[in-house]
Amino acid sequence: MELSALLESTLAGLGYELVAWERAGRGLMRIYIDKPEGINIDDCVAVSNHLTRLFTVENVAYDRLEVSSPGMDRPLTKAVDFTRFAGQMVNVKLRVPMDNRKKYSGRLLGLEDNKVSLDVDGTVILLDWNNLDSVRLKPEF
Q: What is the pTM of this model?
């Protein structure tokens, strides 16, 4: 089973959402989790302990495991995130510039037909889903 699918199904069974994961230098595996009421240190410890045992059984190679909350500037990685967080402010980075820009900041309106709708200073722009490099919530205080 692919690691993404393994993480997704395991975390869902534990009541968590896999937000993102990455392999970093020196064998570090970093996993970001969430749940509707938020994440605390006990959640991270429980998931870390569970994944340590799972990775041993599944022969997943890693040296260090880090489990944490996605933070206030959570990345939006799945199509459902763009519905769930519609109305929130986001920062967007594109792979290929559009109108000579790779970075946009605005209010997320949603996702439809592989186009992300974004209100940038009163102007609605459509960004191609396949051109998104990263989208992160922009905390408002």
A: 0.83
Spatial separation of the C-alpha atoms in residues 57 and 51, rounded to whole Å:
10
Dihedral angle of Cα 58, 64, 70, 73, to the nearest 10 degrees:
-140
Q: Is 14 among the domain residues? A: yes
Could you give the CA distance from residue 65 to residue 30 in angstroms, rounded to a whole number?
A: 6
pLDDT in tens, 74-107: 999 999 999 999 999 999 999 999 999 999 999 9
Q: Please give the residue range of the domain that contains residue 101.
A: 79-137
Produce one character per residue of 22-33: b if its CB has 16 or more CB atoms within 10 Å, e if not. Answer: eeeeeeebebbb
